[in-house]
Amino acid sequence: MAQVTLNGVEKRFGDTQVLHGISTDIPDGAFVVIVGPSGCGKSTLLRIVAGLETQTKGEILIDGRDVSALEPKDRDIAMVFQNYALYPHMTVRQNMAYGLTIRRVPAAEIEARVARAADILQLGPYLDRRPRQLSGGQRQRVAMGRAIVREPKAFLFDEPLSNLDAKLRVQMRVEIKKLQRQLGITALYVTHDQVEAMTLADRLICMNAGRADQIGAPIDLYTKPSTTFVAGFIGSPAMNLLPAQISDVGTDILVAGARLGLPVDHGIPAGRPVTLGLRPEHLSADAAGPLTLSVDLVEALGADTLIYGDIAPGMQLTARLPGATPVALGERVPLTIAPENLHLFDATSGQRL
Amino acid sequence: MVRRFDWFPHLTIWIGIAITAFPIYLAFIASTWLPPDLAQAPVPVLPGPHGADNWGRVLFAGGTSKVGTTPVLLMMWNSLVMALAITIGKIVISLLSAYAIVFFRFPGRMVCFWLIFITLMLPVEVRIVPTYQVVVDLGMLNTFAGLTVPLIASATATLLFRQFFLTIPDELVEAAKIDGAGPLRFFKDTVIPLSMTNMAALFVILFIYGWNQYLWPLLIAPDAALDTVVLGIKKMMGGVDAPTDWNLVMATALLAMIPPVAVVVLMQRWFVKGLVDQEK
């Protein structure tokens, strides 16, 4: 395993710039997840690391060696694809052994490595089957096995769980994480699923339109999102982002013309327009609360109850209340929030204040 | 549930079979008599006593009054060599050209594709005069090469393989790249095994195409030693200088049917698989 370094990686397809200079480190043995909506360039970035695409600018270092100009096979990386990309005409054993056979690893060694990988992934009984005779989860394991036997410097995952059903996805997510810990794998993992991102990552890269908006520990992205984009993308249901203004005395916030009534001091000049971020799970019902939500949709999930509605005309808000809260449609629910849970962003740039 | 025996479909099928098979049966009957027996008013409908003689004569001696020198066994051999050369040549060439067109980005790639595509509109008969000239200039008249090479370039098979290759997921190509398989390795280890059923289906179609070639061998290989069986039958028939030995013609015709039928029967399972599902 090794450290992977990206240095100002840019990618341009004709006139379209899809990556605007991404720089980051993937420390040895770390699990780094790139998360973002479709079209943000996260897969392109992964494919550049793999060598399947060529960057327009910047460099990729694996273990300190510049691999930017090398073919994928010479980079010593392994990749797990969304649709598994197993060779359909080969058995599970052959699929896993193929890369080693090409590299002229001695047969006995291949056999030993395949056996070990099969053991780790519980694929022993399926070694002589074809991919088509396996379930989605098993195919996914074979794809992982193919990567493991290679003992590469880094693992690249391209949305590996997207083709699985919800239950299996959770199960495989746990397996991947365990496996990564157990084998001390350096991994770069691309997903659009923020739950996967939060649970798997040691370090999270949140991408927006070809830029890394924020790079950090998952919990930091949740507690201190650096832009409105990250704030809205991480967390479910998404953070409420409301147009607001710092009050004339500078210690309160005006939302929809009403004072929030919270003694906050962000040191922001009075009267400045801001975007106020409120996480649904931080809102709580309080008869004296400054925000009043007219409920127009209730989703009782059991553990929680989500209520949707507006606090002023055209100002939508979502709140997550404890599961037992009885809420009726049309009801007006007063809500409050602790001052430390407020997020303030610049109204135009979207940067955290 | 036991289904009541439904006689109507069975009857229809049997009538159909009878209509198709009757001429073949008559041909067989005719091959067991002598020409005078076939010339008289009620044509015999039961096997005659001369079957072994007739079949032996056409197979090994040739010896009809028309082409006294070429035994049918040799003609069959010629046909087989020609059909196999055309079939295998076509499959190899189209596999390679389709592979190049689908998996490589090179300048003029689309031009190549369209040039191949356009030849679809030019069957052998259309380009027969210039092709003949080329073959003559190359000194390939009366050779197996002249007989087969001009028929090998095949747009149809190239297009078929192209369509199939396009269905191979990009990720598979990329996985192979990461596994370290070069282009030829990927071709050998992945593309060819995946194309097996398509190749089998093409083999059947192209073998029959090759076996049935008539016009081209007629022009390019007038030498009796290179006669194909289809050509041989034609040479045995008609004309004013001698009567047609129908018994021998029929025996030859039946012999000519055997290899294509054998190919279809033997490769039927693969053929159907190639047409309906893809090994993916």
Topology diagram in text:
The complex is a heterodimer of chains A (353) and B (280).
Chain A: E1 4-13, E2 16-26, E3 31-35, H1 42-50, E4 57-62, E5 65-66, E6 77-80, H2 92-102, H3 107-120, H4 136-150, E7 154-158, H5 166-183, E8 187-191, H6 194-200, E9 203-208, E10 211-216, H7 218-223, H8 228-233, E11 240-246, E12 253-255, E13 258-259, E14 273-278, E15 284-285, E16 291-300, E17 304-312, E18 315-322, E19 332-336, E20 343-346
Parallel strand pairs in A: 3-8, 3-9, 6-7, 7-8
Antiparallel strand pairs in A: 1-2, 1-4, 4-5, 9-10, 11-12, 11-14, 12-13, 14-20, 15-19, 16-17, 16-19, 17-18
Helix pairs in contact in A: 2-3, 2-4, 3-4
Chain B: H1 7-30, H2 35-39, H3 51-61, H4 72-103, H5 109-119, H6 128-137, H7 144-152, H8 155-166, H9 170-179, H10 183-211, H11 215-220, H12 229-236, H13 246-276
Helix count, DSSP H or I runs of 4 or more residues of chain A: 8
Tell me the series of helices and strands of chain B, N- to C-terminal.
Answer: HHHHHHHHHHHHH
| Largest sheet report of chain A | 6 strands, mixed
CATH topology of the largest domain in chain A: Rossmann fold
Helical coverage of chain A, percent range: 10-25%
Any idea what the CATH architecture of the largest domain in chain A is?
3-Layer(aba) Sandwich
Structural class estimated from helices and strands of chain A:
alpha+beta
Total strands of chain A: 20
What is the end-to-end distance of chain A?
Answer: 39 Å
Task: Please give the domain count of chain B.
Answer: 1
Order of helices and strands of chain A: EEEHEEEHHHEHEHEEHHEEEEEEEEEE
- Domains of chain A, number: 2
Rounded radius of gyration of chain A (Å): 24 Å
